[in-house]
Amino acid sequence: MVRFKRTRIKRGKVELLLWILAFTFFVVYSASLIYPLLWGGLASLKTMREYDTEIFELPHKWQFINYVTAVNTIQDGEMSFTNMLWNSLWFSVGSAIIHMEFTSSYAYVLNKYDFKGKKFLYGLCLFMMAVPIGPTFVSNYRLIHNLGVTNSYLILLTATGVYGMNLILCYSYYSNISRSYAEAAMIDGANFYQTYFKAMRPQALPMMVTLILLEFIAKWNDYMTPLLYLSRMTTLATGLYRYQLIVSEPGSEASGDYPILFAGLYICMLPVFVLFAFFSDKLMQNINIGGLKG
What we know:
Layout: H1 13-43, H2 48-53, H3 65-73, H4 81-112, H5 118-130, H6 133-147, H7 165-175, H8 180-187, H9 192-221, H10 224-229, H11 236-247, H12 258-292
Helix pairs in contact: 3-12, 4-7, 4-9, 7-9, 7-12, 8-9, 9-12, 11-12
């Protein structure tokens, strides 16, 4: 029986010191992320009195009823918790799918076809990523209001914008797909749309699904956009933001009821946790494929 000797990697003192410092940094950084989650979860299971007097201690009795109370009491005007949940769902899913469908088709044309202005359009994409949000905020606000798409499902039309990191990732991904597939489809009689939807787009689906999931998470957590444009169709993130203002206001009906607020926040975070728990490996794998090999 052949036995293999274990070889130990010898590190110099400087390398060992750097390794220890890096390890310590990441341990501290991980703790700084995990601790608030644990603390918030425990806070959501306390009574108001325990939260005020024993903020860093474990609950004496785990108040799981707080989550039921959060669903029944957190609302924004006439908008109930379930209504806000539905608004978050259609806004997040619709925006993510529409955005990626437009982004994928735009990246495909830029990558696989030669036409005048192609380099300009790609350069414009890079330039738009460098433009700060502040200078364009007022113009975007006025444009969306003048279009009359506020407080309606038509707000999803704003998701058709294609400029950003997602376009670069899709462009890079299509660079890895040979144009011979499109040429073979055209030889078989497929037109432009059939070539894209039946030959090229299916090969980019892994990347598209990954970016749809990331876009969904971003839209699900976005409270500012619905706050500005969906004031009468409140999403869950926006509703919790407004409820937090009520809780922190002295003398209000829900003043100081932070355990209920934290319970609502954890309900809002649940879809994100589930998505990351089931798809974290594929998310990172597909992003690396699109971003590194392109």
